[in-house]
Amino acid sequence: MTTPFPPPPVDTIDWNNVGFKVREVNGHIESHFSYSGGGTWSEPKFVASPHLQIHGMAPGLNYGQQAYEGMKAFRSPGNKKVTIFRPNRNAVRMQHSADFVSIPRVPEEHFIKCVNLAVAANAEFVPPHETGAAMYIRPLIFGSGAQLGLNPPDEYTFVVFVMPTGVYHGVHAVDALILEDFDRSAPEGTGSAKVGGNYAPVLRHSQRAYAEKYGITLHLDSKTRSEIDEFSTSAFIGVRKNPTTKNDVTIVVPDSKNVIDSVTASSVYELASKALGYKVEKRRIPYEELKEFDEVFAAGTAAALVPIKSITMKSRNDKFSYNVGSDESGGEVCSKLLKMLKGIQNGTVEDKFSWNFVV
Ligand code: COI
To answer: Element (H or E) spanning 339, and its range?
Structure first.
């Protein structure tokens, strides 16, 4: 007799307080590659452990030769199925990142197969539909062949971890701080790659900002320090309304070669134009325009959409405030877009764009 899929959620987790933290699940998926072994990725293998066996001289550890991804899986109403949101987009983005750090590309089909297997092998940890929580999926790729010289090694490892999570940054509006004494990425650097080297150097600055009660940090472009790039954890989205009528919504996202191509932001961008009839603009956003926005929000897989209450730039004594709704759960535009995005993801709104991949 076959066991029905998906299995019900485990009852060992308080599903209404999942949080955003590491949790033990059944295990992860591994696939390996070596040039000397033929230059193809091995068939995925399930490993019943959160630990990796890794040589201490792996360039992934020593030289930052790694890249990662983030996606989410959702349980549909009535526990009928589990779906993953736009994994094909993440597959392509991981190939983009891999090129930056001389890691062989994982073919899209193989990427999706590994991600599917990781979710399927841990399906009882996909949160109940009603909770609004999701299973966070973390694919990770790194140079794993021991290597002392600064050359690409022979061996690479691709792994997929999963864990149940709520949303990063919580569900309420946060204050943002522009980081002024640190450039996230060099003008001709790795800014568009989802590599750990773009994240670790931010930590000491974001920790300082959190201590000062800012909930999120924002980066300007490093060449001119005059345009908006992205938040440290997620993409930037600005909302303009006609100043007289307060209608005619325009969604503005940065066009910068140094930001990560956010799957959430581009989904919002598409929903805004195709489903809600808003104007959308992908273009450079000068710092001066921050005072023109009615709403600002951060968009990311982990974050979903985070309403931004204010943006501060200390050296200029500027603090711009935005509409986040009376209960601080988001202004009108943010709330509308989030409702639609979440609805598509969790199966309560028709998926007209075929964004959901059934596990
Ligand atoms: C994601 O949103 O998936 C990310 O990778 C951001 C990370 C800082 C949690």
So the answer is: helix 332-346
